[in-house]
Write a structure and sequence with these properties.
Layout (H helix, E strand, L loop, with lengths): L10 E5 L5 H8 L5 E6 L11 H10 L6 E5 L12 E7 L8 H14 E12 H11 L3 E4 L13 E7 L3
Parallel strand pairs: 1-2, 1-4, 2-3, 4-5
Antiparallel strand pairs: 5-7, 6-7
């Protein structure tokens, strides 16, 4: 979130928000903005994952007034073009089974970004590189040991891209 240098009034979309870790952190930084989280709410991926849990977490964090959650497939987002200033996704897109569908999710994220908007995707390094190549832009930065899952071979990388104006 520090990388985004938010002003505090942005409209942010978090893809695959789950229980709201990124969504809530974003909402804390948006006192005059709004954070929208979308997920399919698969209870097999995370025990007890559901919109009511995310909203309860937002309320406990004191940001419920700035958080909205929706059920949506990130490969076909239910939002108009150019709807958000920032789109985030943390360790979600690589879970989509096919490469084509993963690229569709990245394309959808770019579609709903406003010109000049920021895309921030954290995913395993080998997938983040492919997303950057797919959209033809972006900087990549390793997120370090805090984002290693079993070791450095499964470390996460942040893709940061800005939609052209």
């Amino acid at each position: 979130m520090d990388r985004a240098a938010l002003k505090g009034d942005e409209e942010l979309l978090d893809l695959g928000c789950g229980r709201g870790a990124v969504l809530i952190e974003a909402a804390r930084r948006l006192p005059a903005g709004r954070a929208v989280g979308v997920d399919l709410w698969s209870r097999k991926d995370q025990s007890g994952n559901g919109p009511e849990v995310t909203l309860a977490n937002a309320a406990a964090a004191g940001v419920a007034d700035r958080v909205e959650v929706r059920t949506a497939d990130i490969t076909a987002l239910p939002f108009q073009d150019d709807s958000f200033d920032v789109v985030t996704s943390a360790l979600v897109i690589h879970n989509i089974p096919s490469p084509e569908a993963r690229y569709r999710a990245v394309d959808e994220a770019m579609r709903v970004l406003r010109p000049g908007g920021q895309l921030l995707i954290a995913d395993p390094w080998w997938t983040a590189r492919k997303y950057a190549a797919h959209i033809g832009q972006g900087t990549l930065r390793g997120l370090g040991p805090g984002y290693w899952y079993g070791g450095p071979w499964f470390g996460a990388t942040l893709l940061h891209a800005v939609k052209e104006r």
